[in-house]
Amino acid sequence: MTDLVEQDMRAMPVTVSKSRYQSAEFSARLQRRYAAERRFRMAGIAAVGIASLMLVVLLGSIVSKGYTAFWQTEIRLEVTLDKAQVEERNYMAILRQALYAQVPEVTDRAGRRSLNELLSSGAPYQLEKLVTDNPSIVGTKQTVWVLADDEVDQFRKGFIRRDVPEAERRLNDIKIGAIDKLAASGAIAGTFNSTLFSVGDSREPEQAGIWGAIVGSALTLVVTMLLSVPIGVAAAVYLEEFAPKNRWTDLIEVNINNLAAVPSIIFGLLGLAVFLGFFGLPRSAPLVGGLVMALMTLPVIIIASRVALKAVPPSIREAALGVGASPLQTVTHHVLPLALPGILTGTIIGMARALGETAPLLMIGMVAFIVDIPHGLTDSATALPVQIYMWADSPERAFTERTSAAIMILLGFLILMNGLAVFLRKKFERRW
Fold first, then answer.
1. Contact call for residues 363 and 269 (beta carbons, < 8 A)
2. Which of the residues 36, 165, 344, 407 has the least number of beta carbons within 10 Å of its own beta carbon?
3. Which residues, in sequence order, are CB contacts of 398 under 8 Å at separation 6+?
4. Which DSSP letter does residue 274 get?
């Protein structure tokens, strides 16, 4: 009996609530509110879906155009290293004789001129390096693999069609016939494109690489990090922990926030006027690029470091001061270690932004055609984003796939750096 009474008492407020307080008008407003929330949730899901779809389309387009750049067509030749020709460094003649021997049916001058165009202009240097590394092979017969011309490579990858009239394609029938014969005998094949990761830029697509751009970007980032990180963290610590709160510090904070939103090309113009024009530093050098990037990333690091310092609870400072620590000891021994995850995250994101910037480097001359690998901060160099810009402007079809491949590599570096920032934040993050 008691249980039944308790059940009736629990049920009564619900019944009264529905009958007394939930009028028809209130119920209609509640339903409209729920419907608006559902529409808002669906709009958010749709926005995320559209953004994800666009990202997939973008990445799919880049990968579909660039994955073929990671393998390159090479031709196998049986060369006879005649001593007289080697002494005259006439390596191209040696390669051509070997190629004629593999396609003996082509005997006329025009046909052999077409055969000559199957070989890359860098093939003689490959053979010369082989002889230089092994002088004992002079006078013998050797089997070598050398680079094919970029048009041969594009034909093998399906970018040049054979089912169109000869006048409308880049390869004539003699070249296609020779390629088919070499393929039938296994004398032409695609191999991993190690050239892409071992050399600098070149006018010939099959000889072009990004190693020089990677080294230039690395040297630029080293200068950027050595300058911007200590200065940025020190400025953040001073403004957050020691600076008096007055109109001057407010003005400094406003200017720092404004500098974080300044277009990057403005910093390039500043570097052009100050570092190159006034100080006379070498043009196209990683040193100048690092100085410009340091100016650009400094506001980002200062703002991120200040946010990380603000996130440390005031009780930490009060406890340190209460046991006799000085303000400097409080900051260095307690506040900074706890703010380190946020500082590292802001620093890595700033470095990632510097790695992907192009406009400031264009203004200071790092857009120059640089073949050699830089070995110092004052050597002429280019950077990976600038290399992508230069290749995208090249008319050869083979540079299109190399542009997309370089973009994939740059995105890989950026994803790695952002992933490292997330990892460091998760590893060292403290919850209060």
1. yes
2. 165
3. 150, 151, 153, 154, 205, 206
4. I
Q: Which CATH superfamily is domain 211-428 in?
A: MetI-like (1.10.3720.10)
How many angstroms separate the CA atoms of 201 and 372, rounded? 8
Question: From the first residue on, what is the mean pLDDT of each consecutive set of 10 residues in the chain (432 residues)?
Answer: 48 46 78 92 95 94 91 93 89 93 90 92 92 90 93 91 86 91 92 91 91 93 93 93 88 88 89 90 91 92 92 89 89 89 87 88 84 89 92 86 93 87 76 60
Predicted model pTM:
0.84
Query: Which residues face 119 on adjacent strands?
Result: 148
CA dihedral (281, 286, 289, 291) positive or negative:
negative
CA–CA separation, 100 and 48 (whole Å): 60
- Exposed, middle or buried, 108 (CB in 10 Å: 0-12/13-18/19+)? exposed
The CA distance from 364 to 277, in Å, is: 10
Burial group, residue 65, by CB count within 10 angstroms (0-12, 13-18, 19+): middle
